[in-house]
Amino acid sequence: MDFKELERRLVEFRDARGWRKYHTPKNLAISAAVELGELLEHFQWESDGEILEAVKESGKKEAIADEIADVVIYLTLLAHELGIDLSEALERKIEKNGRKYPVGVTSD
Amino acid sequence: MDFKELERRLVEFRDARGWRKYHTPKNLAISAAVELGELLEHFQWESDGEILEAVKESGKKEAIADEIADVVIYLTLLAHELGIDLSEALERKIEKNGRKYPVGVTSD
Amino acid sequence: MDFKELERRLVEFRDARGWRKYHTPKNLAISAAVELGELLEHFQWESDGEILEAVKESGKKEAIADEIADVVIYLTLLAHELGIDLSEALERKIEKNGRKYPVGVTSD
Amino acid sequence: MDFKELERRLVEFRDARGWRKYHTPKNLAISAAVELGELLEHFQWESDGEILEAVKESGKKEAIADEIADVVIYLTLLAHELGIDLSEALERKIEKNGRKYPVGVTSD
């Protein structure tokens, strides 16, 4: 799946249910934050080692994958409402990051 | 760009800079939350109407697009570290949502 | 209740349950973010008018109050772990804000 | 400082600047999330040990304290707008937690 296809499917899904009226920029941004909170819940009390161990179990891995997907879904819908081409935005941001942090010059 | 290509480019970018050691699950999840906070800043004091008006200006639109891209970038890197196929996760989540909210049965 | 009393009670509560080992700075900051996500859930699809109407119902008001309290609880525990006096921090921040935004000079 | 005093000072501060019109429930909740994002930024790439070391330096400690204060400030203003008594909400939540996690019965 690419970003265009994801956007198309999400908008179609939403319009088939008459939900567009709820999809204001603020509501969608809040929704992304709600889902990110649910994602963080999986990392709340566990160490990085425990998390990496836990995702070997498929149920846990799927639960975390679902939360990541939910955030991406709301961000895609938000981008759609604002007329933002997410694929293009990612290209541009990666390029900007490349200029900001040239290889071999980083403080690392 | 599709999700596989995005993941490949981000991992390559990171490894060229020796940043993998910082990319623990908790750090990446926190990073996604930091960027989402920066995205929310654009919606803090403006109404939905004002936001939709503001993105007609290309600088504002690009600033918001950059923040959305940053969240997606960190989520893609997080999925990578956890062995999650983001494209597959999105497919599965859309399918789950379709079963949870069948067309014509929603309360809307 | 003042901030010192809140801190004292929360630390006592935690220590009586042997939870200190989980209360690292990152875990407590993540926990505050998780609870803030739950707070945002109450504002996800409703307009400001609907929210103000909904809190007239005591169950809804208590549910939101619980989430606000949860965030404040985790922030108080985080401040405790970092040796931060929250009451003093609030005094200083209000004073800084007063210098930053003098009355009668704001753009409003 | 106690919660009543904090609330009184923040409302006075805001009203002196004519900012009440911006203080809708959604805007204040988003603002709390923005500030929590800024707090998380301090924990983004550092380990717990590094954070505890860093706050020994007073500038870093004050920077983190400022962000914690900012979140508490917006939550207090949100509680005010919703008619929630934050001190009472904290009392009730601590009591609920005590019933939910009785001493000596926790799984720890």
State the main characteristics.
homotetramer, 108 residues, mainly alpha, Helix Hairpins, globular, DCTPP (chains A, B, C, D), hydrolase (chains A, B, C, D), Nucleotide pyrophosphohydrolase (chains A, B, C, D), dCTP_Pyrophosphatase (chains A, B, C, D), dCTP diphosphatase activity (chains A, B, C, D)
Task: Please tell me about this protein's structure.
The structure is a homotetramer of 108-residue chains. With 108 residues, chain A is an all-alpha fold. The first copy, chain A, has a single domain, classed as Helix Hairpins. Helix content of chain A is 72%, strand content 0%. Chain A contains five helices and no strands. In chain A, helix 1 crosses helix 4 (58-82) and helix 2 (25-41) runs antiparallel to helix 4. The longest helix of chain A is centred in the middle third of the chain and has 25 residues, at 58-82. Chain A is globular, with a radius of gyration of 17 Å.
